[in-house]
Amino acid sequence: MSERAHKTLREFSGKPVFPLNDELFMAARSELSAAAEKQDLPAFLADGDDRLTTFLATVFSLSPFLFDSFRAHPELLEHIDEPFIPQLERITQQARDAWRDPEGKTGDSDIMVRLRTAKRRIAFLTALADLAGMISPEETTAFLSDFASAAVAATVDHLLVSAAGENKLTLKDPDAPSAQSGIVVLGMGKLGACELNYSSDIDIVVFFDPDAGIFSEGDDPRSLLPRLMRRLIRILQERTGDGYVFRTDMRLRPDPGSTALAIPVEAALLYYESRGQNWERAAYIKARPIAGDLAAGETFLGEMIPFIFRKYLDYAAIADIHSIKRQIHAHKGFGLVAVHGHNVKLGRGGIREIEFFVQTQQLIAGGRMPELRCRRTVDALEALREARWIDKATTDELTTAYWFLRNVEHRIQMVRDEQSHVLPEDADGLLRIARMSGFETTDAFSEALLDALKTVERRYARLFERETTLSGEAGNLVFTGEDDDPGTLETLRNLGFERPEDISRVIRTWHYGRYRATQTGNARQRLTEIMPELLKAFGTSRRGDEALLRFDRFLSGLPAGVQLFSLLKNNPNLLLLFVEIMSAAPRLAEIVARRAHIVDGMLDPALMTEIPTREYLVERLEAFMTGADIYEERLDRLRIFAAEQRFLIGIRLVTGSISGFAAGRALTMLATLVIDEALQGVLAQMEEAHGTVEGQRTCVLAMGKLGSSELTAGSDVDVIVLYDCDDPLSMSSGPKQLDVPRYFARVTQRLVAALSAPTAEGVLYEVDMRLRPSGKAGPLATRLAAFEKYQMNEAWTWEHMALSRAHPLCGDPSLMADTGSVIDAVLGMPRDRNTLARAIADMRARIERDKPARSQWDLKLIPGGLIDIEFIAQYCHLACHVPRGEIGGREVMTTDDVLARFGPEIMEDGDLEAVRRALALYTDIAQLTRTCLNEGFEPDTAPSGLLERLCKLADCPDMSALEALIADRAGEVRAIFAKLLPAAEDDEAAG
Questions:
Q1: Quick one: 274 exposed, middle or buried, by C-beta within 10 A (0-12, 13-18, 19+)?
Q2: Is 809 helix (H, G, I), strand (E, B) or coil?
Q3: How far is 569 from 393, CA to CA, in rounded Å?
Q4: Full-model pTM
Q5: Rounded distance, CA 107 to CA 316, Å?
Q6: The pLDDT value given to residue 12
Q7: Alpha-carbon gap, residue 336 to 11, rounded angstroms
Q8: Are 323 and 379 in contact (CB under 8 A)?
Q9: What secondary structure does DSSP assign to 563-624, as a single string?
Q10: Kind of pairing, strands 183-188 and 288-292?
Q11: DSSP 485
């Protein structure tokens, strides 16, 4: 390149490009002439016959992007007749120094302008030099990659200087901010290999050493660095009036769905050592330190070598890499080699096949042959030739095809600065690409393109001819004998298991028939048949070892295995469902392990398609209870039925088949049917032992989350037992007579025992009756008249708030209707809104003071959390003015239902929408976490599969984004709460 340092664009040879048509060419030449006069540009631009002017007009007729760039910034042509290579090098250096400012006052906006100005110039000049044939595609990619590296490095330096100015870290060398910072910034993919295409995005990953000695004690780098990386993405990627620098992608970092944008070095190394996949190994072949602490970057890559390049010949990578290629074709729909509409990167015979051809063989042999560890594709092709892995003809053919296709790719992108790799479908569009590529006709271009594509396709196909045999040789799954088979351990490790020795030992237990489920030869044969898919499914799930160990506990309790193994073989979706349960939902996994028969319910065709409505549950409950006539047997069957249906509702929730709101309604409907069945059994038992009371009526009033149809997995049930009769002073009619209060107290005691007493089948529900009149001091069962008197005359505001969630659950229909009327009357009592608001706000302040949230994930208690929303809903309910009968006393109303019905009278539309939006988010998270976990949720200890599911349901890229979303929603709710119930602010100010 140094030999041509003094060459100008004028010195191109022949006709490197042809104009699209005369009309566009003449228009471009005219505008160049006009600009030369008006913009003080070089005079030769006004000469329509000048060699360079003709070339520029030709280029502008072909590329709307370059033509528009000139129109918007004529100064791009000020030095067009000067040596271009020094200009390109100078622009790159200016980008690298963009963070510097003599006054040390560079802000984000300043560096954004400088980098965008430099990008505009280098993109314009590089395209012209490339189209003129003055630089090769190889040099084009190098110039673009050098500029991108300089832009990222300057941005990182700027961010470190900015953070140091805020006393968040201390630079070891202010003139070289990144030096010895321990911050590793790697360019991945084509950026790492210095092969960047013309309109490429850039892939980077960022790691840091927390002990590098630059971070202040008060600032955790685990939160500081991700914030800085969000700024980096904005500085490089955001489109402004000056354009953009590069679209920036950081998703090649470990586990991007659940990790921050910057990760500690040790955590990254641990991830790759334990969970890294073959595609990640392939990605790291091209990795290169481009910014930050370059020495630390080289050290990191040195430690990654054992992960990237295995010590032994790694033929298993062939099947893995080829499967990725097959998935690309299947997903994108790529068929045969073509011209019109063909994807020159991902299509048949495209650039990706050359890269896979190279990377596969690098992964196979790079551990034993360091000379194959080349970043650039063409360098690796030459290294493979020198190592005699491929012959010279293959090297030459693929190298020529590679640069031809990269050249075409650049021209596709130069048309409109779009990251496209697809040739136009229309004739005019294809002619444009042909003439930008130096072909005067489409036919000539098509012939050359097809020759390149078919050459690549032929060479690529030959590499994978032995795929089945080779993958079989290296894909050992041998579980015989007492010692571990090394090949099997390698296979398990490649599948993603972190502790292959433990997994191998567990599987040997299965094959040895030590469990009842695997004692028969037929069962073990079926198990062997599903083993590859089973291990693949578990291995690719996050924390696959833990998930498979839960599956082992399930197998240990299974009475027989042939049917299950056959089902898993013939139902791939059931296999995936098992894996999802074991990897994301420890609580559900434990239930499966304890209750193997619950698998039967998972085979219900309606499981994922039918929402569990009342009719759905009634039909199944009636069928399940048929034939059970003894009271104790019916209670056990209720326990089995409820456990199975709660589990199946949880399955629907985990897989995303139903929402959090739907899960709450389903769990409440299930509880309603079960409690009703238990109540009927209790009343029958009481009649047999103590007779009946004249005119007796009994019902259960649902309170709390049961009342508002918002039960979660593991919720207890808040109930009040109400009764009525003709004469409250009478006695029951049976042989063992009881007075009325004792009779209905006994009914209540038996109902509580029926629900909460532990039997061999467990507990139905824990029962809480503290919301009855006078709480623990009050009678177990309450006569309706006494309940009405208490609520109308003695109850506190908080009791009316609790009553607003209540609904008659089950029992005598007439008493349920009468109870609903009482609730209507109580809720419809006139109230002073200010007094009510102060009472509710004071209550919330006391809760916050006496029982603060444990963490941000305590969604019930955090400021702006579920309690705030429930209190807002209850305020709207109690403060509204609606006719009696429309207040909802007889209805089942969720918190969201209450907000929707009564909120519009009390709240502004925007506030109401914000509160309901937060409620939906909180409900989805709370329902899912309580379904999956026995203990409270904390991201640090939760299964990765659950974290991934949480991010998915909230449409967040990672947990940091989800935490930020929750903080935003909580902030909105708390502000609305304070506005609606202003005494809350007064209380906080006083505190």
A1: middle
A2: strand
A3: 46
A4: 0.53
A5: 50
A6: 85
A7: 41
A8: no
A9: HHHHHHHH-HHHHHHHHHHHHH-HHHHHHHHH-GGGHHHHT-TTTTTS---HHHHHHHHHHH
A10: antiparallel
A11: P
Which class for 104: exposed (0-12), middle (13-18), buried (19 or more C-beta within 10 A)?
exposed
- Alpha helices, H only, 20-83: 22-38, 51-62, 64-72
Fill in the DSSP letter of residue 372.
G
Which residue shows structure tokens 């709450």?
A: 664
Asked if 303 and 266 touch (Cβ cutoff 8 Å), the reply is: no
Instruction: Show the CA angle centred on residue 475, arms to residues 470 and 481, nearest 5°.
Output: 135
Q: How is residue 234 written in tokens? A: 């904005």
Neighbour count for residue 734 (Cβ, 10 Å): 16
Quick check: 800 and 843 in contact, CB under 8 A?
Answer: no
The single-letter DSSP state of residue 699 is: E
| Total residue length of the chain | 991
The residues facing 172 across adjacent strands are none
Tens of pLDDT, residues 291-343 = 999 999 999 999 999 888 876 544 445 544 554 444 344 333 345 677 888 99
Contact by Cβ (8 Å): 114, 98: yes
- Quick one: average pLDDT of 815-833? 91
Task: List the structure tokens of 702.
Answer: 């649902």
Instruction: Of 554, 860, 891, 845, give the one whose Cα is nearest residue 708.
Output: 891
> By the 8 A CB rule, do 928 and 949 touch?
yes
CB contact set of 715 (below 8 Å; sequence gap of 6+): 667, 705, 706, 765, 930
> Which residues, at least 6 apart from 886, have a Cβ–Cβ distance to it below 8 Å?
none
Q: Which residues pair with 334 in a beta bridge?
A: none
What type of residue sits at position 738? L
The residue ranges of DSSP E strands in 732-827, in sequence order, are 767-768, 781-783, 807-811
Radius of gyration of the chain from its Cα atoms, rounded to whole angstroms: 36
* Mean pLDDT over each residue of the chain, to the nearest integer: 86
350-359, 469-478, 489-498: the lowest-pLDDT one:
469-478
- How many of the other CB atoms lie within 10 Å of CB of 838? 18
User: What span, in angstroms and rounded, lies between the C-alpha atoms of 819 and 784?
Assistant: 7
Dihedral through CA 333, CA 339, CA 343, CA 345, nearest 10?
130
Tokens representing 481 are: 């004998």
- Angle, vertex CA 822, rays to CA 816 and CA 825, nearest 5: 145
When pLDDT is cut at 50, 70 and 90, the band that residue 439 belongs to is very high
In one letter, which amino acid is 90?
Answer: R
